[in-house]
Amino acid sequence: MLIVEGINVYYDLAHVLKDVSLEVHQGEIVALIGANGAGKTTLLKTISGLLQLTSGRITFLTEAIQQKSVEYIIKAGISLIPEGRRVFPAMTVLENLYLGAFLRNDRVAIRRDVSHVFELFPRLQERSMQLAGTLSGGEQQMLAISRALMSRPRLLLCDEPSMGLAPILVENTFGVIRRLREQGTTILLVEQNARMALSTADRGYVIQNGRITTTGRADQLLDNPDVRKAYLGIASVEPTSADKEGIRGA
Known about the structure:
The protein is α/β, with parallel strands linked by helices. It has two domains: 2-77 and 153-249, P-loop containing nucleotide triphosphate hydrolases (Rossmann fold, 3-Layer(aba) Sandwich); 89-151, no CATH class. Helix content is 40%, strand content 24%. It has eleven helices and ten strands. A six-stranded mixed β-sheet has the order 6-7-8-3-9-10, with helices on both faces. The chain has a four-stranded antiparallel β-sheet with strand order 2-1-4-5, covered by helices on one side.
């Protein structure tokens, strides 16, 4: 569905993405993990057309989109849930949702989609006429996800959906992500909570200093000693040389 091939992206003179390649197949959840500043958000912004690449190619459903506008990419079926939610605080919940469908003119279907996101997040229906800026952090995250869904994406780009959320809300958010995949939405997930991301995803990529360094099935990455040490806070269970000497001398 999505193929990113050898892309390079700069911020002024800073080389942020360096020959990055990855693939997302239809029906998958693919996780992208890495430290702050590794290039995760830059990659999502580049795929969605918010940033321009210097070289490389991005293909979505067999069409090259690296030179296309944000509007074109949304119409093609890619929607971004931005880091930090980015809801419109002076607009109501309902107005934010309708803004997510601004490229559509099928009013009956739009109303059905509003009902659908209210089924996913009943709390939003209770607050439909409330200003988005008065919502809690968790409610704003629900709204950001719902607003992205209003464009009917085939590929959903999720940037740090658990940021700033209480643990119970993190579980709820990832439950919704899994449910969206079951309903047919493909997802590329950027997430600092590497354990939760890899527990949810089918496959994963690790990005370090703007380069993809490791890729594999999500369960393989969860068991990878380097990934466990760097991103899961778990040291390898293999005994050190000193431990082995101690065992032999016992």
